[in-house]
Structure formats: C-alpha cells, structure tokens
Amino acid sequence: MTREDDPRWEQLKNGGRTAEFDEDDELAGETNDATPGRLRAGPRTLAGWDEKIRQHIFAKGREELAELVWLLTQRFDELRDEFRERILLGEGDVDRLVAQARKELNCVTAQDAWRNGWTGEGNIPDYGKLRHRLERLVELGHPDAVAHLGPEILQRGMDQVGQSRDEGETAAELGDCLRVVFDAVAKSSWTAAKRLLFAIDAQLQDDYGVIDDATAAILNDQQYSPSDWSAVADELARRLSARRSTKRKGAEDDDEPGEGDDDFSRNYQRGQIGNWFTTALTRAGRGEEVLAIYEREARATGSYERLVKHLIDQERGDDAVRWAGEGIAKTAGKLPGIAAKLAGQLCESARSRKQWDVVAAHAAQLFFARPSRDGFAELLAAADRAGCKEPVRRLAQHFLETCTSPIGGSAGKRGEARRHISADWPLPMADYLIPLVETRQSARTPTQPHFEVLIDIAIAEQRPADVLHWYDLMCGARQGPAYGSAWIGPDYRADSVAEAVAKSHPERAMAIYRKQVEQNLPQASVGAYETVARYLRKLKPIMQSIGGEQGWKQSIDEIRLRYRNRPRLMEILDGLEERPILAKPKRRG
After folding, report:
1. How far apart are CA 502 and CA 321, in angstroms?
2. HSE on the CB side for 152, CA within 13 Å?
3. How far apart are CA 233 and CA 227, in angstroms?
4. pTM here?
C-alpha cells in the first residue's frame, strides 16, 4: 500500500515532474518574522518554484543572462542541440537538419527489434530522437520538410515492424513518430489531393494496426471539396488500371479468382485500393460510377460480396441474385467460404423481405451440408413460417436415418443436382444454391446414420426412449468415417444420454455411468481417479432413488477393496464420502 508521504504523489500532482530541493526549502534566504532566528520556508510546489525561477531570470541583466545561458549550454547537451537546430534553421540550412533526421531514421530502423517475453530481455528501437527532430522542424515552421520524409519513414518503419519479434512495442514507437508526420502533412503546402493520397497510402501499407486513427487529422478534415476527392479518385483509377495491365500473363478479368498466396495478396491489395476508390467517388459526388467499379472488380478479384451488398442496399434484388449466382458458381469449388457468404447475403435479403420459403431453402442447404441439432431446429423454424414444417421434418429425419438427401440424393455427378430433388420436397431450389449442393455431393458421403444428431434432437425434444434407441444403434454400429469428420464413438454422447434418461430409465443411466467408472479405474493417474469420482457423484442420486444409499456405499467399498494399494484414490474416495479425518481408516505406508 502506498504511503501518504510517498514522493510519487507529488510527481503525479505536478504532471510527472519531480520537485527538487524539497529538503532545502527552508534555505530561501529570508527571515521568518513569526519565528526569529529561522529561515522562511521556500516554495513547496513546482508551480511555486517555477514562478520564483522566472523572477530570478527576468531580474538579471542582458550580459549576465547571456553568460548564464552559455554556461547552461555547456552543461546540458539537449539545450546545446536546441540552439544548434535554431541556428541552422535561422541560416536556412533545413537540408542539414533533414539529413540528420534521415540519418537517425536509418539508424533506428536498422536495429533488430525483439523481446523475450519470459526473461524480459530484448531490444526495442527508440524512435524518440527522430520524433524530436521532426517535432522541432514542424514547430519552427518547416512541415513540408517532415512531409517529404514521410513516405520513407512509413516504408522503413513498416518493414521493421513486420520483422519484429516483440509484443507490439516497436509498432507503438513507430506509431507515435508517425503522428508527427501526419500532423506535418496536414500543415504542409501540399495540394489537398496529395495529402489525402498520402494518408490513404499509409492506410494501405499498414498491415499491423500501427497507424490506428492517426490519419484522422487528414482524412476526417471537412475542408476537402468534391473536386479534391475527384482528383484522388482519378489517381486511384490510374493505379487500378496499371494493376490490370501488369496482371500475370494469360489471366483475364473474368477468370476464376485464384487461391494461391500470391493471388490472395494481390487481390486483397487491389480490393483495398478499390474500396478507397469508391469512397473517393462517393465523396466527389460521382456515386453513379461506383456500381460499374464494383462489377469490374468482382470478376477481377472475387469481391462479389461487396457488389452484392451494394445491390441489396440499392434494393436491386434481381441483380443481386444474378451476381451472387455468378460468384457462387466461380468460388464454390476453390473458395467455398466466399460462396457461403454470398448465399448468406441472399438469405438475409430474403429474410428482410419475409420470403420464408427462400429462407427455409437456405436453411435446408446448410443442414444437409453439415447436419446438427441447431441446424435442424433452424430448418424447422423457417419451414414453419413457410407453411411446410411437417413434410420438411419428415424428409430431414429420413436423411438423418438413411443419409439420403431430398435435394441431391446420397450421391450424384456434378451438374445433376437438379435431377435428384425429391418430388415430396416442398421448398424451392434456387439456381444459385445448386453449386453449393453439388460441392457437398462431391465430398465423401456418410456410410451410416447421423447417430449423434439423432440423439441430440431426441434429447432436445425430451424423448428418452428414442435417445436410448439411437444410442444403442450407435454403440452397435461399425466404426468408420462419419460425415465430414472422424468417427464419433458412443462415449462422446454417454454423459448426455445418461442425464437425459436418468429419471425415465434409471437402470440404463446407472449402467452407462458404471461403464465409465470401470473404464477409468484401471488407469493409475489422478486425472482418472477424479473422473471416477465425478461419475460416482452422478450415480449417487440415481441409486438412492431406487434402493437407498446402501447400494452406492457398497459400490465404493468394492472399489476400495480392489484398489486398496492406491493411496491417492483412497483419499479422493474419502473426500467423496465426506469422511471425518478421525473416521478415516489407517492405511499401510
């Protein structure tokens, strides 16, 4: 706990500055009238000392003051550097100060940035000196010189952050320095378009969250006119055109988006430029050009989501479906995540328009692709709103039991999904969903019922007899690959099954728990012993409901007898029975 006389309280009160000479405050040189023979106390706060020092300085003559300043410059390097910078700027030698700043930049960015989180050792580059030089240039009226250094600082600093091995300290150092740069750019004589492009380029280069909101001083400035943003849009259009012209040989804009690392990086960067391009067009009052850009970039980079969202926002539903269908067809095989998001956009659009049959069709596609209890519930809820809950439920249940889907069958060739729609299926099959169904069909199909889903549904609907029915079939099934994942054995559902049938079928619940106890007892480990205790706790209320507590105690006594040479197990059983210490039997050492 911090004491009241801790000197750090005074430091906080004075803005982080430490009051010096506190022990010598009484040496002020004046007699205290109230207490003759003693010296009057001097100032007790920094503010008091500041005023006293100011009076002391202003009371000196010119020559005496000049001599004092000269002596201080010999004692304090920072003060000497301050005068050097002022003299150089006064003589118009800004280039020399810029050269010194560039030298400091080269020095600090050449360092290896790292930190060992275990030992605390490391090397974090200190951008403080460079930041100081930049601040002095701005304060003394030369923001253009700092702005000119900005791109170099940004590039070298980002490269260093990208190679650093620390906890973000280097990024923080660079970020503080860049705030000075952005402030200088905002105050520079650059054209408005050039200032905006510098901030946009900085955002495009920042893959590490270094800049944060530091560019707000430029980008959020309301002084920019539509013509300023129009000039920015024209420059970004030129860059996008240059990227298209340098695209890899043989590739066309309407090719399927690539899935390699280079393609992803290239498309991501181009997509970011495209985002700023459309932002600039909108702020320039040229919003009518945005749609054409989105359409062109969708085919070039796979950015169909942005286009579809724009069309939905513009309430152009038919166009949104058409473009989403094209995007799904091109990405379902190689980039299924994009295809799924496009389908999700159309589903939410249909939901907003209360097209419940379309919403239910989407829920069905997701359920048959990856069956689960939650997916089953969502499908039935949507089908209920569409007025076809019972037939959908029946066919979905049939799928879980036989692995035969009403939309696409259990297997099929690519391009034949439309032929395999069951005549009893009451929901529509949108054309854009067919590639997603075919992709599911091309994957490995299940070889046995979805027991785990059937069990979960029966538990949720409180049908204990069906829970045991599917659990017993699951226990007797041949182990093999399940749908979309490795085999999930019956032990995975044992606890939930026993809990679900404990009241209606206590004997079966007891049998499941006893099996888990017997499987863990042979393992000589504390973890296994604690697992045994957990299942014994579950057994206790069930056994008490059937024949009192005697049967449960007898089970524990049998375990004690069989494993009496395991003292740690005995201690855990003692705790389970809540035996008093004096009542515990002595054991052999």
Report:
1. 50
2. 16
3. 10
4. 0.67
CA dist 35 to 23, 29, 44, 297, Å? 19, 14, 19, 86
* DSSP for residue 546: H
Please name the residues in contact with 508: beta carbons below 8 A apart, sequence gap of 6 or more: 468, 498, 501
pLDDT category of residue 24 using cuts at 50, 70 and 90: very low
Contacts of 333 (CB under 8 A, 6+ apart): 435, 439
Tell me the residue type at 370. Answer: R
13 CB-near residues (< 8 Å, 6+ apart): 45
Report CA-CA distances (Å) from 193 to 186, 200, 226, 228, 512.
Answer: 11, 10, 11, 5, 73
Radius of gyration of the chain (CA): 38
Of 128, 127, 199, 184, nearest to 160 by C-alpha is: 127
The structure tokens 């791109």 sit at: 151
- In tens, the pLDDT along 467-489 reads 999 999 988 876 544 444 444 56
Cα–Cα distance, 486 to 476 (Å, whole number)? 17
Q: Which residue, among 472, 272, 228, 432, has the nearest Cα to 342 in the 3D structure?
A: 432
In the block, residue with structure tokens 């943003």:
229
Q: Are the C-beta atoms of residues 96 and 107 closer than 8 Å to each other?
A: no
Round to whole Å and give the CA distance between 45 and 21.
10
- CA 441/CA 403 separation, integer angstroms: 12
| Cα–Cα nearest to 145, from 135, 154, 156, 160 | 135
Distance separating the N- and C-terminal Cα atoms of the chain: 47
Q: Name the DSSP letter for residue 123.
A: E
Distances (CA, A) of 212 to 176, 187, 199, 217, 383: 11, 20, 12, 12, 45
Number of Cβ atoms within 10 Å of the Cβ of 381: 15
Q: Residue range 183-190: average pLDDT?
A: 94
Choice among 29-43, 120-134, 185-199 with the minimum mean pLDDT: 29-43
Q: CA-CA distance, 45 to 33, in Å (whole number)?
A: 22
Per DSSP (E only), the strands in 227-272 are none
Question: Which H or E run includes 115?
Answer: strand 114-115
Q: What is the pLDDT of residues 301-335, one digit of tens each?
A: 889 999 999 999 999 999 999 999 999 999 988 88
User: Based on the number of CB atoms within 10 Å of its own CB, is 404 exposed (0-12), middle (13-18) or buried (19 or more)?
Assistant: middle
The percent of residues above 70 in pLDDT, for the chain, comes to 79
- Quick: pLDDT tens for 75-107: 877 777 777 666 665 555 678 888 888 999 999
95 φ, ψ (degrees, to nearest 5): -60, -35
- Overall residue count recorded for the chain in this entry: 589
What tokens were used for 47? 């503010």
Count of helices and strands (H, E) across the chain: 27, 2
